[in-house]
Amino acid sequence: MGNIFDEAARTWDEKPSRVENAQKVGEAILKFLPVSKEWRTLEIGAGTGLLTLYLQPHLCEIVAVDSSKGMVEVLREKVGKLGVKNVKPLLMDAERELPPGEFNLIVLHMTLHHVKDVPSLFERLRELLSSGGFLAIGDLLKEDGTFHRDNTGVYHFGFSKEELFGYFKEAGLEPYLFELVHSIERNGREYPIFLAVAKTPG
Question: What CATH class does 2-199 carry?
Protein backbone atom coordinates (compact mmCIF):
# COMPACT_ATOMS: atom_id res chain seq x y z
CA MET A 1 0.00 0.00 0.00
CA GLY A 2 2.95 2.29 0.61
CA ASN A 3 3.52 3.01 -3.10
CA ILE A 4 0.26 4.82 -3.91
CA PHE A 5 0.74 6.95 -0.80
CA ASP A 6 4.47 7.51 -1.45
CA GLU A 7 3.56 9.08 -4.79
CA ALA A 8 0.72 11.15 -3.34
CA ALA A 9 2.62 12.39 -0.28
CA ARG A 10 4.10 15.58 -1.77
CA THR A 11 0.74 16.99 -2.89
CA TRP A 12 -1.41 15.38 -0.17
CA ASP A 13 -2.10 18.59 1.78
CA GLU A 14 -3.16 20.52 -1.31
CA LYS A 15 -6.69 19.16 -1.10
CA PRO A 16 -8.73 21.50 1.17
CA SER A 17 -11.28 18.76 1.96
CA ARG A 18 -8.51 16.60 3.48
CA VAL A 19 -7.25 19.42 5.66
CA GLU A 20 -10.80 20.27 6.78
CA ASN A 21 -11.66 16.63 7.51
CA ALA A 22 -8.60 16.23 9.77
CA GLN A 23 -9.49 19.47 11.54
CA LYS A 24 -13.12 18.44 12.16
CA VAL A 25 -12.03 15.10 13.64
CA GLY A 26 -9.38 16.90 15.71
CA GLU A 27 -11.98 19.36 17.03
CA ALA A 28 -14.27 16.47 17.99
CA ILE A 29 -11.46 14.66 19.84
CA LEU A 30 -10.70 17.82 21.84
CA LYS A 31 -14.40 18.39 22.49
CA PHE A 32 -15.45 14.90 23.57
CA LEU A 33 -12.33 13.56 25.32
CA PRO A 34 -10.59 14.84 28.48
CA VAL A 35 -7.39 15.48 26.49
CA SER A 36 -4.42 16.35 28.68
CA LYS A 37 -0.90 17.73 28.22
CA GLU A 38 0.26 14.64 30.09
CA TRP A 39 -1.10 12.24 27.50
CA ARG A 40 1.21 10.08 25.39
CA THR A 41 -0.50 9.45 22.08
CA LEU A 42 -0.02 7.00 19.23
CA GLU A 43 -1.40 7.88 15.81
CA ILE A 44 -1.57 5.08 13.26
CA GLY A 45 -1.68 6.05 9.60
CA ALA A 46 -0.60 9.59 10.45
CA GLY A 47 0.17 10.43 6.81
CA THR A 48 1.54 13.95 6.42
CA GLY A 49 0.44 14.79 9.95
CA LEU A 50 -2.68 16.87 9.29
CA LEU A 51 -4.37 15.55 12.43
CA THR A 52 -1.08 15.02 14.31
CA LEU A 53 -0.12 18.67 14.11
CA TYR A 54 -3.65 19.80 14.97
CA LEU A 55 -3.62 17.76 18.21
CA GLN A 56 0.07 18.21 19.05
CA PRO A 57 -0.21 21.45 21.13
CA HIS A 58 -2.69 19.72 23.47
CA LEU A 59 -0.66 16.57 24.19
CA CYS A 60 2.61 15.53 25.82
CA GLU A 61 3.85 13.43 22.89
CA ILE A 62 2.59 11.91 19.66
CA VAL A 63 4.27 8.89 18.11
CA ALA A 64 3.09 9.25 14.49
CA VAL A 65 3.30 5.97 12.59
CA ASP A 66 2.77 5.40 8.87
CA SER A 67 3.67 2.59 6.46
CA SER A 68 4.41 5.02 3.59
CA LYS A 69 7.98 6.28 3.40
CA GLY A 70 6.87 9.32 1.38
CA MET A 71 4.28 10.34 3.98
CA VAL A 72 6.74 9.96 6.88
CA GLU A 73 9.35 12.04 5.03
CA VAL A 74 6.84 14.89 4.51
CA LEU A 75 5.83 14.77 8.19
CA ARG A 76 9.50 14.79 9.30
CA GLU A 77 10.12 17.88 7.15
CA LYS A 78 7.07 19.65 8.60
CA VAL A 79 8.07 18.83 12.18
CA GLY A 80 11.60 20.12 11.49
CA LYS A 81 10.38 23.36 9.88
CA LEU A 82 7.91 24.04 12.69
CA GLY A 83 10.45 23.15 15.38
CA VAL A 84 7.93 20.78 16.97
CA LYS A 85 9.61 18.68 19.66
CA ASN A 86 6.81 16.35 20.80
CA VAL A 87 6.01 14.57 17.51
CA LYS A 88 8.01 11.44 16.63
CA PRO A 89 7.37 10.27 13.04
CA LEU A 90 8.03 6.55 12.54
CA LEU A 91 8.05 4.45 9.39
CA MET A 92 6.20 1.32 10.50
CA ASP A 93 3.43 -0.96 9.27
CA ALA A 94 1.08 -1.15 12.24
CA GLU A 95 -0.47 -4.38 10.99
CA ARG A 96 2.92 -6.06 11.44
CA GLU A 97 4.47 -4.20 14.38
CA LEU A 98 3.66 -1.47 16.87
CA PRO A 99 5.92 0.88 18.82
CA PRO A 100 6.54 -0.08 22.46
CA GLY A 101 5.17 1.87 25.38
CA GLU A 102 1.91 2.75 27.05
CA PHE A 103 -0.44 5.31 25.54
CA ASN A 104 -3.34 7.34 26.95
CA LEU A 105 -4.78 7.84 23.48
CA ILE A 106 -4.50 5.93 20.21
CA VAL A 107 -5.91 7.58 17.09
CA LEU A 108 -6.65 6.25 13.59
CA HIS A 109 -8.00 8.81 11.15
CA MET A 110 -9.18 7.65 7.68
CA THR A 111 -6.92 4.64 8.23
CA LEU A 112 -9.12 1.82 9.53
CA HIS A 113 -10.72 1.14 6.13
CA HIS A 114 -7.22 0.16 4.93
CA VAL A 115 -6.78 -2.38 7.77
CA LYS A 116 -7.51 -5.94 6.71
CA ASP A 117 -7.92 -7.57 10.13
CA VAL A 118 -9.57 -5.02 12.43
CA PRO A 119 -10.22 -7.37 15.42
CA SER A 120 -6.56 -8.43 15.53
CA LEU A 121 -5.31 -4.80 15.39
CA PHE A 122 -7.74 -3.66 18.10
CA GLU A 123 -6.63 -6.50 20.38
CA ARG A 124 -3.00 -5.42 20.03
CA LEU A 125 -3.88 -1.75 20.54
CA ARG A 126 -5.82 -2.63 23.69
CA GLU A 127 -2.53 -3.93 25.17
CA LEU A 128 -0.80 -0.59 24.50
CA LEU A 129 -3.50 1.52 26.16
CA SER A 130 -3.10 2.67 29.73
CA SER A 131 -5.89 2.06 32.25
CA GLY A 132 -8.73 4.41 31.31
CA GLY A 133 -7.03 5.10 27.94
CA PHE A 134 -8.96 5.91 24.77
CA LEU A 135 -9.00 4.51 21.24
CA ALA A 136 -10.40 7.11 18.80
CA ILE A 137 -11.38 6.24 15.22
CA GLY A 138 -12.27 8.85 12.61
CA ASP A 139 -13.55 7.24 9.42
CA LEU A 140 -16.29 6.92 6.83
CA LEU A 141 -19.77 5.83 7.73
CA LYS A 142 -20.78 2.67 5.82
CA GLU A 143 -20.78 3.50 2.09
CA ASP A 144 -21.26 1.67 -1.21
CA GLY A 145 -17.64 1.63 -2.37
CA THR A 146 -17.89 4.83 -4.44
CA PHE A 147 -15.90 7.11 -2.09
CA HIS A 148 -12.47 6.08 -3.40
CA ARG A 149 -11.77 6.37 -7.11
CA ASP A 150 -9.58 3.27 -6.77
CA ASN A 151 -10.41 0.70 -4.10
CA THR A 152 -6.96 -0.94 -4.13
CA GLY A 153 -5.96 -1.43 -0.50
CA VAL A 154 -9.46 -0.52 0.74
CA TYR A 155 -10.79 -3.45 2.78
CA HIS A 156 -13.93 -1.85 4.22
CA PHE A 157 -16.40 0.55 2.62
CA GLY A 158 -16.82 2.51 5.84
CA PHE A 159 -18.22 1.19 9.10
CA SER A 160 -21.53 1.24 10.96
CA LYS A 161 -21.75 2.11 14.66
CA GLU A 162 -22.87 -1.47 15.45
CA GLU A 163 -19.98 -3.00 13.56
CA LEU A 164 -17.36 -0.83 15.29
CA PHE A 165 -18.85 -1.24 18.76
CA GLY A 166 -18.77 -4.99 18.13
CA TYR A 167 -15.05 -4.80 17.31
CA PHE A 168 -14.45 -2.68 20.44
CA LYS A 169 -16.20 -5.17 22.74
CA GLU A 170 -14.45 -8.12 21.12
CA ALA A 171 -11.10 -6.49 22.01
CA GLY A 172 -12.15 -5.92 25.64
CA LEU A 173 -12.81 -2.18 25.15
CA GLU A 174 -15.88 -0.26 26.30
CA PRO A 175 -17.71 1.77 23.63
CA TYR A 176 -17.59 5.42 24.74
CA LEU A 177 -19.12 7.51 21.96
CA PHE A 178 -20.12 7.62 18.30
CA GLU A 179 -20.70 11.03 16.70
CA LEU A 180 -21.03 12.20 13.11
CA VAL A 181 -18.56 15.08 12.97
CA HIS A 182 -18.22 16.01 9.30
CA SER A 183 -19.14 15.02 5.76
CA ILE A 184 -17.17 15.07 2.54
CA GLU A 185 -18.86 15.97 -0.71
CA ARG A 186 -17.79 13.84 -3.63
CA ASN A 187 -19.49 12.49 -6.77
CA GLY A 188 -22.37 14.91 -6.13
CA ARG A 189 -23.19 13.35 -2.76
CA GLU A 190 -22.26 13.51 0.91
CA TYR A 191 -20.13 10.90 2.69
CA PRO A 192 -20.51 11.27 6.49
CA ILE A 193 -17.42 11.04 8.71
CA PHE A 194 -17.75 9.76 12.29
CA LEU A 195 -15.65 9.83 15.42
CA ALA A 196 -15.99 6.58 17.38
CA VAL A 197 -14.25 6.20 20.73
CA ALA A 198 -13.67 3.23 23.03
CA LYS A 199 -12.17 3.24 26.50
CA THR A 200 -10.20 0.67 28.44
CA PRO A 201 -11.86 -0.43 31.66
CA GLY A 202 -10.45 1.27 34.75
Answer: alpha beta
